[in-house]
Amino acid sequence: MTSERRSLEIAVLVTPGYMPVDIIGFHTAMGLLPGVNMHLVWKNLDEVVGHPHFPTRATTTFEDCPADLDVLYAGAGPAEMLEDEEVLDFLADRGSRAGWIAGVCAGSLLMGAAGLLRGYRATTNFQLHEYLPSYGAIPARGNVVEDRNRITSGPATGSFEIGLRLIQVFFGDDAARKSELMMEYAPQPLFGVGTPELAGPQLTEEVRAMAADMGDGFEQVSKRAARRLGVDADSA
Known about the structure:
The chain has helices at 24-31, 85-95, 106-113, 158-171, 173-182, 196-199, 201-210, 212-229, and strands at 8-13, 36-42, 47-50, 54-57, 60-61, 71-74, 100-104, 121-122, 138-139, 144-147, 150-153. The protein is of the alpha/beta class. It has a single domain (8-229), classed as 3-Layer(aba) Sandwich (Rossmann fold). The chain has a 7-stranded mixed sheet, sandwiched between helices. Strands 3-4 form a two-stranded antiparallel sheet. The N and C termini lie far apart (51 Å).
């Protein structure tokens, strides 16, 4: 006689200005499997608009989100979310009990702002990587970085890869292989310049300049976060 597997409870944060590219791969990979309850969570069920323009509606409020989650996940959002007390309180509460904490791009900083990365190896987008110590995280390079039950990524492909890794955790190798094939996940970059190391210094600096305004916002937020969290970012 076999025991039935309980449903997984997974919460994916969606905020005004969030980046859909950072969550859609994970949502697809996990959501295609049976026995997975996917919650798109926000303060209310009003429409939120992702960036670039991508109308979304949460399925579950912070208040109604299950207390005990198997996965708490966030992609990038605007810098001001890292100082939104209601968002941080929700993440800190659910993250204190969640089986896994996952962040992609600035979603890693968001988890850090909620106090969930202190003492953990983590990564984020190359344009934000320097801010990880402000949250007590140990900066690490890699497409996906896993440290105990924290799993983070910089590039948007990490959304798929975190999904596949957690399918492996919860459902096993065979299910993860089948999911990878079902989605035909086999990236073949057109130009092969998807990291600073591959792109070289000139192109990397051009891209940094394009996103300078975004970086400035995260720099100031990260300085304030370090003070709030009592972190010495220079020695972290």
